[in-house]
Fold each of these.
Amino acid sequence: MPKSKSKSKSKSKSKKEFINFFVDIPIYGTGIRFVVSNDLKRVEKLVDKRYGPGAFNGDDAVDTRAASTFRPNKEWVGLVWLRNKPKTVREVGILAHEIFHAVNHILVERGIELTMDGEAYAYAIEYVTDKAGQKLLIS
C-alpha cells in the first residue's frame, strides 16, 4: 500500500507543470525565455533570480492566462509566460500573440520597424515559433 501512495504523490507532482527554456536568436544577439507554469510564485522566483528583483510580478498576472516581455534594470529581456502548455487552437493562438510581442520588442530596439511586407518580423516570428513549438507542441 505505501507504494501506491508514492505513485499518487508523483502523479500529483506531474500535474504541476513547469517548463523553462530559452530560444536564442543569434542574428539579433538576444533571445526569449519561455516559462510555462500556473504557479506564479515559482515563475516570479525563477525570473527574479535570473534577471533581478521585480522582473516579473506574479501579483499583476493573477487574472492573466499569458504574458510577454519585461524590462528589468533597463535592460530588455524577452519572456513569454503561459499558465499551461498549449493544447487547443486558441492556446496556440495565444502563444503566437505573445511571441509577436516579444519579437516586436527585439526588432524595435534594433531600429527595425514593422513595414507593409514585414519580412524581418515574419522570419523572426517563424524562427521563434518553430523553436518554441518543438518544445511545447511536439514533445
Amino acid sequence: MPGTTTNYAFRYQTPSDPPDGAALSQNLAEDVDTVLLAELTEAASVPFVRLVAQAVQSMTSGVAAAITYGASSEEADTHNFHSTTTNPTRVTPNVPGWYECVVTFSMGSAAISQMLTGVKKNGTNHNPLVVLRPDVVAAAASNVQAVVSVSCNGSTDYIEHIGQYNSVTTPLNTSISAGVACTFEVTWKRPL
C-alpha cells in the first residue's frame, strides 16, 4: 500500500493495489493509534504553573504590589517557570508562546472599598486589570479574579501577579485562609 495521506501519513490502498480489507483496517487502526498517542503525549507536556500563597503579605492601601509566592507555594510547575527563592513574584516561561494567566487577589477581613488585580509583563501593567468595587464596604475577606492573555518570548519575558486595595485601614495583610488565598496560574495556550 504505497499511498499515504498528506497531513497524518495514514496509509491507504491505491487503485493499482489488490483489494485487501484486513490489511487496510489494520493499517488504519495502527495509524490512528499512533496519532492519538502523540496528541495525548503533547497535551500532557503543556507548560502549566499553579501557585497558592502560603504566607501573608503586608499591603499598603492604594499601592499596587507584586504578590510573593515563596516556600511551599508551588502546587504545579511542569517546566520550572517559577522559583520560590529567586524572584518569587515572577513566573518566567522558558517556552515561547501565548499564555493564559488566571490570578486571584485575596485580602483578609477589613473594610475594603476597592480591590484591583491583574498581571505585569516585564514590570509593566498588562491589560485588563480587574477592579472590584463592593456596593457596601464590608469587613469581610474578599477576592477579585482576572483572566489575562500574555505573549512571552521564552527567554527574558516574565509575568507577575499584582494586587491593590483601597481602605482607610493600612497596612493590611493578604489572606491565606482555606479557600481565600492569592493564586496565580499560567497555562501555555499556543505558539507565538
